[in-house]
């Protein structure tokens, strides 16, 4: 079991290395010279060379890559080429915003999707199953940010029960923090739940056809008891895999939803600096988002080993 | 219920494609120019009203379908043309190498289309082209997986063994035996990916990183509605409904086709 987990962590480390190289090369090697861009067309070759030296651009790419990675390991994401601001200082205040938005959305999506997906599988020949499938299909067609716009207009402006946008830090006022997060979280969670329902449904449908399930029913267990005893654990296996992809979807969804609700999160930071073509900030934020997705994927893999005893011997999923 | 998804999906997709084609030749007004007073409600002259610049919303909606279909076709085209050959190649690789390639696609999937597009837009400036390329590149893993899984099944069949025994080369086998057999699978994936491409394109142009104004897209219509949507909710509702209808259409069509191709699924749906 330890070996199996260690193997998965090794794959995680390699993936991280690969992703960081790709991001670094995309940001540093593809676009034009930042020094020239900063100084404009009137700059002389000498001032450009001086600026390149100042920004550290005169050194070879591999050296800069190693410095970038070493810096990140210490929590230092470098400085913006344009303003000289510390990228870490820019990112730090945005993390709780995007972090709570994404985590709460994923949690709410699971809470909505698990019971609805089970109903949809168990009552698939009844109207309830059909209704859930139709709801899921509709939910999947709605962009999360548009759901956010509609919720903000309806609950924020028409009914005036919740703030339509903006953010209040938790430390300043926990109640207002929660009230401001309700609409963004719900808009992201509804759409993700629609996607998740379909996975929950097919995971439970699979269980319903298994011999062990039929046996449990044959010895007189109710469907509900058999499902709780045998179904949940087996269905969890296939669901855990989906969660990694779900988180990736929620993180990018959050980028857009943050614009709708004017939340000062990672997404807003990314968009502001993408507009200014500030490579150092872009590079750092994209790396952080990819890191989050890869970490969740790695945790999912480890969870897989823990849930499924068959994998503990070192077998493969 | 049988076949209902397929039919509804086909109708919605036809509607979107027809709107796109129609808008190439005719829209009630010029979608990029003011055609009346600002923020008018629906009327005989403007069936959906006008936007914050006085432009006819129906005309913009029709022209927006064109942007949507255009970006979707090119993005999915890029993904199919790169992903399917890669998948066929992966299917013929020895186990270890194939495994490594699959792991690489896992990592690639940590870059969702939208993130890649924001990155490209930040490096090169946002445009229709960066949006298409980013969405296309991000969809490659899906096609690689579908093509590889399908090809592995076909390659294990007796008729491929027979073809090999006759001395037919790998490329010829891939072309004459594997491709025709996996085409339906790829088609289903293309339909589903098209729906995802529509969502990504809408989000990008809402963020101002996709197709540049004045060319209308459904996402940029939402962006321009942001300053007025609290007072004029219909400005946000109309383009959003168009996006949802298009995505629903392609999703239903994909599900319907999958069910049609795989009769085993029918029992679950009925």
Q: Can you walk through the features of this model?
A:
The complex is a heterodimer of chains A (317) and B (270). Chain A is mainly alpha-helical. Helix content of chain A is 77%, strand content 0%. Chain A has two domains: 2-78, no CATH class; 93-275, MetI-like (MetI-like fold), CATH 1.10.3720.10. Chain A has helices spanning 2-29, 34-39, 45-55, 61-73, 87-91, 95-122, 127-141, 144-158, 174-208, 211-218, 223-260, 266-275, 279-307, 309-312. Chain B has one domain: MetI-like (MetI-like fold). Chain B has ten helices and no strands. In chain B, α1 packs across α9. The longest helix of chain B has 37 residues, at 170-206. The radius of gyration of chain B is 22 Å and the shape is elongated. Chains A and B meet through α1, α7, α8, α11 and α12 of A and α3, α4, α7 and α9 of B.
Write the layout of secondary structure elements.
The complex is a heterodimer of chains A (317) and B (270).
Chain A: H1 2-29, H2 34-39, H3 45-55, H4 61-73, H5 87-91, H6 95-122, H7 127-141, H8 144-158, H9 174-208, H10 211-218, H11 223-260, H12 266-275, H13 279-307, H14 309-312
Helix pairs in contact in A: 1-13, 6-7, 6-9, 6-11, 7-9, 8-9, 8-11, 9-11, 10-11, 11-12, 11-13, 12-13
Chain B: H1 4-25, H2 57-92, H3 95-108, H4 113-124, H5 128-155, H6 158-165, H7 170-206, H8 218-225, H9 234-261, H10 266-269
Helix pairs in contact in B: 1-2, 1-9, 2-5, 2-7, 3-5, 4-5, 4-7, 5-7, 7-8, 7-9, 8-9
